[in-house]
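seq:
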Amino acid sequence: MTSKGQLPALTNSRLLSLSMGYLGLQITFGIESASLSRLYQTFGAGVDDLAFLWLAGPVAGLVVQPLVGRWSDFTWTRWGRRRPWIMGSGAMAVGALVGIAYAPSLAWAIAMVWLLEVAMNALNAPYRALVGDTMPLHQQGRGFAMQTVFIGLGAFLGAMTPKLLSLAGVANISAAAATPESIRIAFLLAAGCLALSVGGTVLSIREHGREDYARFGIAVAERARKRVLLAARVRSSLAMLAPFRRIAAMQFFAWAALYLFWVYATPIVAMGVFGASSVQDPRYGAGADWVGVMFATYNGVAGLFAFVLPRLFDRYGVTAVHAGALMVGGAGFAGVAVAGAPAMLIACAGLIGIAYASLISAPFVLASTLVARSEAGTAIGLMNVFIVAPQLVMGFAAGAVIGWLSPGSPDNALLMAGLLCVVAAIICAGSPRASTP
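struct:
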């Protein structure tokens, strides 16, 4: 029996089905993040161009995800509310992954990556919304926790895939300007995993219609009839963001550092640690595979450290713990720049994982203490701007800055990332102390 104002509880198998799509999503993200710079360089992109070429993700995150999330709120069809968006964007993402796998040129690869990022962001927003749409309040914490498990597992498996394929004997380097066989197979595997996991969720989850919500006594969103002037919306948003100035500055430097790591880890490790002289050098493939291992390591460490963070927050305060984690991350970024052996790279990736775990939790805890509970959801939603903006800035500016510091070589990129992370830690340390609310 369902109480008034509550959705019916889901069985454990339904909870699992609702979360499994994130396994495919994060496998795709793990493979993409570990392979994108390598893919672009294979087709002739210069080191100074990489930061700009990585802009598809942050641009799509800033524009597509909020729009599709809102549009899906008001989509009521015979096939469901979120499922049409999930099915359409999922199919688009699978097609883009196959297009990347068989890319014949740099221009084609760039176009397919943009298509993939648009599709992945269009898929993410309605997928997340399914939790609130289908679960009663008392199950939502469990639902989001299960999604987090799949997110961590998928990111780990995706980042490890190119290395595992190389160990299995699949060629990880191409003599011509073509996608290496291990990367081609990795993207095809991502397409298959995404299709199976998202398709499994779509086929097994039943969405509620307007009549169902009315029967349960739950109000649903309706499109506003009243027009709100753009200027009024802008003023309202600025007023909401004002209390977050210090968090915005802290997030800017920390996410700028992480962006530099994503973009430049492959050329730095392949050339600096493994001694590759060109993209066609077999040592480049070995170094690029090792970057995948590093990405898997920092995601794995972040997932484990996330279990420890709440106790640390309670004991030492969110501000102190986050500042310390950012300092540790700064050492990790700088360590990759000067590492002389693969074992040191893994240790540095572990340090970055500690910072990453705090980075995706502590700022949101701090933000929730700055506003009234009734405004917390809106304010924390606006914080996505603080994550995307530094990536956009780095995408446009990092290539020129790195090119000026060390022309043709990315050697200084991760030293800069370490410095930026330390700056973020100093800003955080200067914030008023906060414990968990």
